[in-house]
Design brief:
about 500 residues; mainly alpha; DNA polymerase, domain 1; two-stranded antiparallel ribbon; two-stranded antiparallel sheet; 25 helices
């Protein structure tokens, strides 16, 4: 049945009259969130429905369709029926009240209309509270009839990621998308996981598809922008950050990223040389354990504390041969490996061991000699370290925040990344040149995507009315562009391809 909300807007479901069912409601939600015009038209529909009696259920569901969770809860608090309870619980979950929502979902398991959706929403409550052991038990006891659904594999992927089994997580998310190609949460987490593995092209392609599915959410647009930025696609990156800022003018992270991109547009550097240098640095970071070496050569390198090709090319032939049990055979073996990578012994100067200056004697000397590569910095930050000949944490602590910010292509975002890494070690940069180094109890790194990027789950309800296709750049997404990321969207398409925030695939 087709119903006109206005003379210009037609929705597939008449909220005021049609029989309530989850699948058409999810589809309606996607339609409403596909544009600002549709949202405006649907608001008028919702406001025309009485908020008392049996009609209150429909009005409350209408608020959920619009993403107005507080209004959903308030309207459905005194309404009766399983549909009222289900959507009230969905709104409570989106508002961070997972324990209360879980109790409601658990009671609705046996309902013919919302039972399956409620079971999957119970799992979402476990994810929201990081109850991974409970989630694992729930998945094991899940009905076999639901074990081959997109949502089941999505939650398996979430569990695998939480347990550090990232390759298994990728397999689970890919399986979820085979079953339901527009499963929004599976798309986001797959892109996120692929980027962690350095598969930027694949991650970018998935994000580009995701931002085409209404409702467009902030996390996906932010991640896509950061991926574009890392590939020096600054106009596309700025377009993404602008879209976020038009929807959320107070988003400080988007403003920082945009400022960094704009600064980069005014700076010139040799892109070809940058790529060559970056490729060399990647090669130098390859661990020695990746190569098949004889037992004698491997043992000698281990005792010499040579862990990567970068460590190896800082040694000369005479240094290696002077080591006990290291002979010509082992030397030729090493030279063959380096030759296969276009490297050679002695091509880089020896790594200097940085000792704490007298005024910083309280800092652990081992920390000063810690290689800067072990901080796992982003490309932009790493290039700045190379330009300043910073090879260890001790070298880095000789510089102030002001000095780093004065470097080309180094902005506030990169500074925040470096300070976060240092604080995890219990130190911080000087405030000014010549100032003291700060020491304190190490602050653990937050759960993050790459360096400074939050990985906190967001529910798509929180993002409604924030970004629509009119706010996105007209041409920010092209197959030939690339990128490196952030957080999470937490939204799902449901079996109907709509915008089900609870991850319900079977309805």
């Amino acid at each position: 049945m087709m119903s006109a909300a206005t003379s210009a807007t037609v929705f597939s479901f008449n909220l005021a009259q049609d029989a309530l069912a989850l699948e058409p409601l999810y589809r309606l939600r996607a339609e409403v969130q596909s544009s600002a015009q549709n949202r405006d038209a649907f608001r008028a529909v919702v406001e025309s429905i009485p908020d008392a009696g049996a009609d209150a259920v429909r009005r409350g569901i209408g608020y959920w369709v619009l993403g107005r969770n507080a209004d959903t809860v308030e309207t459905l608090n005194h309404a009766k029926g399983n549909f009222a309870d289900f959507f009230r619980a969905k709104a409570l979950l989106a508002n961070g009240e997972a324990p209360v929502a879980f109790v409601i979902f658990e009671k609705l398991r046996a309902d013919d209309h919302v039972g399956t959706a409620s079971r999957f929403s119970e799992l979402e409550c476990h994810v929201a509270r990081a109850e991974w052991d409970t989630l694992a038990k729930a998945l094991k006891s899940f009905p076999k009839s639901l074990a081959e659904t997109a949502d089941y594999h999505y939650f398996q992927g979430c569990l695998a990621n939480a347990q550090g089994r990232h390759e298994n997580a990728i397999v689970s998310f890919e399986r979820a998308l085979e079953i339901h190609p527009e499963h929004r949460r599976a798309m986001f987490h797959l892109a996120y996981s692929l980027d962690l593995y350095g598969m930027d092209d694949e991650a970018r392609e998935i994000y580009e598809k995701l931002v085409q599915l209404p409702p467009v959410d902030i996390a996906a647009v932010m991640n896509l922008g950061i991926l574009y930025e890392d590939r020096n696609e600054y106009p596309r990156a700025i377009a993404c950050f602008d879209a976020v800022l038009r929807s959320d003018p107070h988003n400080l992270k988007a403003r920082l990223y945009k400022n960094d991109c704009e600064a980069s547009l005014t700076m010139f550097y040799d892109e070809t040389q940058e790529r060559k240098d970056d490729k060399l640095q990647q090669t130098l970071r390859v661990p020695i354990t990746d190569f098949e070496l004889s037992v004698r050569a491997r043992n000698c390198l281990t005792k010499m504390n040579i862990k990567s090709l970068g460590d190896l090319v800082r040694k000369s032939e005479s240094e290696l041969l002077s080591y006990k049990n290291f002979g010509e055979t082992s030397l030729n073996e090493i030279k063959a490996i380096l030759g296969s990578k276009n490297l050679g012994l002695g091509m880089l100067p020896p790594e200097k061991i940085t000792q704490p200056p007298p005024e910083m004697g309280s800092v652990d000397p081992n920390l000063y000699s810690k290689p800067i590569l072990e901080l796992d910095l982003s490309v932009r930050s790493r290039r700045t370290m190379e330009a300043l000949a910073i090879r260890s944490v001790g070298d880095l602590l000789q510089h102030s925040a002001e000095e780093l910010l004065a470097m080309p292509n180094f902005g506030q975002t990169s500074l925040n990344e470096i300070r976060m890494k240092l604080r995890a070690l219990g130190v911080d940069l000087r405030d000014t040149k010549g100032g003291p180094i700060k020491t304190f109890t190490p602050i653990p790194l937050p759960t993050s995507k790459k360096n400074e990027l939050d990985a906190e789950l967001m529910d798509d309800d929180e993002l409604f009315d924030e970004i629509d296709e009119a706010a996105l750049p007209e041409e920010p997404i092209e197959p030939d562009a690339e990128p490196d990321l952030e957080g999470d969207d937490g939204s799902d398409g449901g079996a109907d391809g709509g915008a089900d925030d609870g991850g319900v695939d079977e309805v």
